[in-house]
Design brief:
Elements lengths: L1 H7 L3 H4 L2 E3 L6 E3 L2 H7 L3 E2 L2 E2 L5 H11 L1
Antiparallel strand pairs: 1-2, 3-4
Length: about 60
């Protein structure tokens, strides 16, 4: 699991250990290393994102 721990510690969004639902914005704590190995949690039928709601807004604004 050391490889997954290294990957989880390689980016601030993974390091914080939080994911959000893009549909309902529900936050959930996650073990990023475990999720990289076994899959990300789902909510509202979709895979949750490591981008916070604020980050999602910034990314959407950039795209338009």
């Amino acid at each position: 699991m050391a490889m997954y721990e290294d990957m989880a510690n390689s980016h601030p969004s993974l390091k914080r250990g939080m994911v959000w639902c893009r549909t309902c914005s529900r936050p959930q704590r996650v073990d990023s290393a475990g999720a990289l190995q076994n899959g990300w949690p789902k909510c509202c039928g979709y895979t949750m994102t490591i981008d916070s709601p604020e980050e999602q807004k910034r990314l959407a604004a950039k795209a338009s």
